[in-house]
């Protein structure tokens, strides 16, 4: 874990996360791929996160269990957030310092399109495994 900070593309939103997990993952679910045109490469930041320019964040309820935040000005994806426990998963590219991240897992691996593949060896979970793990079955 480390403390990290970053911002959206235009700088209207800045954040500081106190407990950033250095292990990052890719989510290949339909929602993440439609949201960003590809997998979400995300960093788990928990609940201890502070936003400056929070009035510039729009939130979209993307499912019964999660919501997604984005910048109203530039459209940068700011977070995927669990409604139940308010845990934030932030796109890795938003962070100022990305040198310590390690790509270790992929979720919804059975939903990954055939036109791309990551070279890293990762722990992979299918849609069914993810839904069971998070009690959405």
Written account of the structure:
The chain has 137 residues and is mainly beta. It has one domain (2-124): Metal Binding Protein, Guanine Nucleotide Exchange Factor, Chain A, CATH 2.170.150. Helices cover 10% and strands 43% of the residues. The protein contains 2 helices and 11 strands, in the order βββαββββββββα. It has helices at 30-36, 127-133, and strands spanning 2-7, 14-20, 23-27, 40-46, 49-52, 57-61, 66-71, 77-82, 88-91, 102-107, 123-125. The protein has an 8-stranded mixed sheet. Strand 8 and strand 9 (88-91) form a beta hairpin. The N and C termini lie far apart (30 Å).
In short:
The chain has 137 residues and is mostly beta strands.
CATH class: Mainly Beta
Q: How many separate helices? A: 2
- Classify the beta-strand content into a percent band: 35-45%
The rounded Rg comes to 14 Å
Give the strand order, joined by hyphens, for the main sheet: 6-7-8-9-4-3-10-11
In CATH, the topology is named Metal Binding Protein, Guanine Nucleotide Exchange Factor, Chain A
Summed up, the domain count is 1
Helix and strand topology:
Elements lengths: L1 E6 L6 E7 L2 E5 L2 H7 L3 E7 L2 E4 L4 E5 L4 E6 L5 E6 L5 E4 L10 E6 L15 E3 L1 H7 L4
Parallel strand pairs: 3-10, 10-11
Antiparallel strand pairs: 1-2, 2-5, 3-4, 4-9, 6-7, 7-8, 8-9
Keywords:
three-stranded antiparallel β-sheet; 11 strands; mainly beta; Metal Binding Protein, Guanine Nucleotide Exchange Factor, Chain A; globular; 2 helices; 10% helix; 137 residues
């Amino acid at each position: 874990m480390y403390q990290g900070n970053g911002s959206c593309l235009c700088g209207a939103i800045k954040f500081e996360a106190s407990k950033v997990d250095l292990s990052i993952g890719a989510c290949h679910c339909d929602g993440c791929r439609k949201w960003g045109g590809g997998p979400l490469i995300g960093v788990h930041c928990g609940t201890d996160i502070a936003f400056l320019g929070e009035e510039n964040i729009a939130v979209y309820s993307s499912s019964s269990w999660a919501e997604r935040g984005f910048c109203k000005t530039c459209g940068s994806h700011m977070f995927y957030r669990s409604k139940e426990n308010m845990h934030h998963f932030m796109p890795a590219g938003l962070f100022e310092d990305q040198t310590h991240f390690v790509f270790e897992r992929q979720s919804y691996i059975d939903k990954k399109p055939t036109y791309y593949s990551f070279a890293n060896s990762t722990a992979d979970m299918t849609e069914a495994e993810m839904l069971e793990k998070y009690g959405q079955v």
